[in-house]
Write a structure and sequence with these properties.
The radius of gyration is 43 Å and the shape is rod-shaped. The protein is mainly alpha-helical. The chain has helices spanning about 1-95, 105-110, 115-125. About 5% of the residues are buried.
Length: about 130
Amino acid sequence: MLIVKWLKWRETFKLLERKLFLEEIALNVTDERCNFLDKNHRLLQNNESGLHRQSSVCHASLEELKLKQEACQFSQFQKQIHWKTGLFARFLTFSSTTCNFNLANWESRVLPCENKDYILLSVYLQIFPRRTFH
């Protein structure tokens, strides 16, 4: 009877030992999995913050490039206005005796020119409405 109890106790002990071993394995796997997920989570957060910084830098660069493009376009527009109005000023010097002018006085003289020239001149006249040429 004592041997039967001892055998049952030993079988129970082996079952408990096996159960403990499997629980330790499960715990180790869970810990490793948690560490792995934690590491990946930190890496993702670092990547996200890095991408956010890069995005803000790219956005600032894009805004800067847009401003440069607008400045270049405005510079070209100014050059066109200066060149076109210079031609009209020379035309006026030779064909008109009046010094002060406005857009209404110019319509008959500018009408034969291209529409683009007329628009550039009207913009110029809005900027300098009482410009004099001698």
